[in-house]
Automatic annotation (TrEMBL):
Lineage: Bacteria, Pseudomonadati, Myxococcota, Myxococcia, Myxococcales
Region ranges (Disordered): 85-105
Superkingdom field: Bacteria
Protein name, as recorded: Transposase
Length: 105
């Protein structure tokens, strides 16, 4: 018996492999969470790009729609935390190592 599932997601422009319901994993999750729209984040986007896109989305949200504004604001907040964490230098004291001195001894 042949598999009846489509090989690609049924959302226009999405080329990811389909899973149950004819949707890819990302679109299935969006559907389960009742999230509007079909745009998915591209894999490998830099934290800076994700933050800038979240800020632009917040600017475009209608302020009178409190629920949509709150979601957009939460997205900016999470993207900002991710951006800050990605920009942190590694801890020189990790594993008991001392940082290298920049002045000769």
């Amino acid at each position: 018996m042949a598999d009846c599932l489509p090989s690609e997601c049924t959302v226009d422009g999405c080329l990811r492999p389909a899973r149950r319901g004819g949707l890819c994993w990302g679109h299935t999750k969006r559907h389960q969470r009742n999230m509007p729209g079909t745009d998915l984040l591209e894999r490998g986007q830099s934290p800076k790009r994700v933050l800038l896109e979240a800020i632009w989305d917040l600017v475009e949200v209608d302020a009178s729609d409190k629920q949509a504004w709150r979601k957009a604001w939460d997205r900016v907040r999470k993207a900002a935390v991710r951006y800050v964490k990605a920009d942190k230098p590694s801890n020189p004291y990790r594993n008991g190592r001392q940082p290298r001195s920049s002045t000769p001894s």
